[in-house]
Amino acid sequence: MDKNYFEDRDNRAIMRLRIIREDLPYFCDEFFVGIENYTSKLSRLNYAYDLRIFFDFLYKEIREFRSFTYESFSLEQLNKVNQTYIEQFLEYLNYYKFRGKYYKNNEKAKARKLSTIRSFFKYYFNKGKLNSNLASRVKVPKLHEKEIIRLEVNEVADLLDAVEAGTYLSEKQKSFHFYTKLRDTAIMTLLLGTGIRISECVGINIEDIDFRVNGFKVTRKGGNSSILYFSQEVAEALKEYLRERLPVESDTTALFLSLQNKRMNVRSIQLLVKKYSKDVTPLKKITPHKLRSTYGTNLYQETHDIYVVAEVLGHKDINTTKKHYAAISDDIKRQAANSVKLRDKKTDED
Fold it and tell me: From CA 152, how far away is CA 302, in angstroms rounded?
């Protein structure tokens, strides 16, 4: 694993995109070249995945296109795709089969795929290669707001205690826990104490940390670097882990290593969080993102400043932060309602 995790990830996305494009009509190449300057590599790869499903749907489900394949489908055929076909595609996404496997899409996943289709049709319409931008007329599926799941203060303490002690682990898991306890505690403490994304956690190298200021460098979503800071509690967990980590011979400077002395990946940390949290909070399905929400909630309750929360969490749009912490905002509004007194009640002494 190369020192630069994010560069490696982007390079893998580039290579994967080239493979996926082989399953798309030839004219799609122009689309991916055209959007390169304003989209990330991962975004383009996700576009390719979505378009592959869309064209597979057209070939299999729309009678007019059943005689076509990715090799024969042209812009002339794309011009024949109407609004109803795209609406049928959204219905198809509820449950479908692709290459021998069955898939389901919720409203959020369907909305994302529709966004891809819209961008795709808009690109060719603006280039004068489509007669109309009919995809823009298709309504986005209604998104139902989900309750934001977060840990309470006592649950955070219980979770960290369980990580340190290996309380709910099986005998087999406990044998590994002997070797990973300090690492796992450092990971959970860092996630809960800074609110960083799981990819940001995976990408941290040892040299990115400066204990003189209790700060560290992360690569944010979109590729920009940022300096964040952590508490003394987080610092102690990291230092304790590093005293064990530093002597290990490895070809990577990654902060968090697997038992094979390789950089931990996103999936391994997801499983780590699930392993420790499932018995601590059985009614809550805790993921790394829920730990992020927990930190954001605590930070907002301490600062009452949504802009501080947005800055620390790395939200580009303040509305994203407001949406996630709307319930807390209502609590603040209720408190504010009782803060301003219009008339002081006179006492008997007055």
Answer: 14
For residue 345, pLDDT over 80 is answered with: no
| Contact (Cβ atoms closer than 8 angstroms) between residue 298 and residue 231 | no
Do residues 332 and 304 make contact, with C-beta atoms less than 8 angstroms apart?
A: yes
Domain ranges (residues) in the chain: 5-137, 153-336
Considering the entire predicted model, what is its pTM? 0.81
Q: For residue 207, which amino acid is it?
A: E
Contact 208, 216 (CB under 8 A): yes
pLDDT, tens only, 27-55: 999 999 999 999 999 999 999 999 999 99
Alpha-carbon distance values, 52 to 16, 88, 130, 179 (Å): 13, 16, 20, 43
Distance (Å) of CA 85 to CA 131, 202, 339:
16, 41, 55
CATH of 153-336, one of 1.10.443.10, 3.40.50.720, 3.30.450.20, 1.20.1180.10: 1.10.443.10
Nearest partner of 151 among 289, 6, 262, 9, judged by Cα = 289
